[in-house]
Amino acid sequence: MKESLEYQENLEEIFRDFSNITIIIKDNYNFSYLNRLTTNLLGFNESEILEMSFIELLTPDSLENCIDNIRLLRETGFCQPFIVNLLKKNSEIVSLELSGIKLDNGRFFFMGKNLSLERLRKEKLEYLEEFNKNILNSIGEGIVVLNPQGNIIK
Hints:
CATH class of the largest domain: Alpha Beta
Order of helices and strands: HEEHHHHEEEH
Radius of gyration: 21 Å
Structural class: alpha+beta
Oligomer: single chain
CATH topology of the largest domain: Beta-Lactamase
Shape: elongated
Number of helices: 6
Distance between the termini: 69 Å
Largest sheet: 5 strands, antiparallel
Strand content: 15-25%
CATH superfamily of the largest domain: PAS domain
CATH architecture of the largest domain: 2-Layer Sandwich
Number of domains: 2
Strand order of the largest sheet: 2-1-5-4-3
């Protein structure tokens, strides 16, 4: 048992300042560990989040997918990357791509990346493209100067 505890402490220390999302949950879906990046991203302090369940933060559209992947973890010991949406403390939604392995002590270790910045960039680009298209369609005659990204300059 002492060896298992030391392994947990070492694992948590290794990933404390890691630049990717790192989450460990217990078999009952309660959080066991989140690295600093993940805690800051979700907006909860460490004591708050460790009292919560991972399931509590999932959006309804992510619930079934996440439970299926945890079931796969229980059966095979690992799961391929999957996408979940979590609610942050301020009620905003953050999209994460996670992959996981089952640890010896029955907990599940997830590592991944934040997809929200990429999603926001894509939404902004789509908005600008639609905006530019509407402007171009409303011009009867004239010259439009675009930059290499397709945004209107003049």
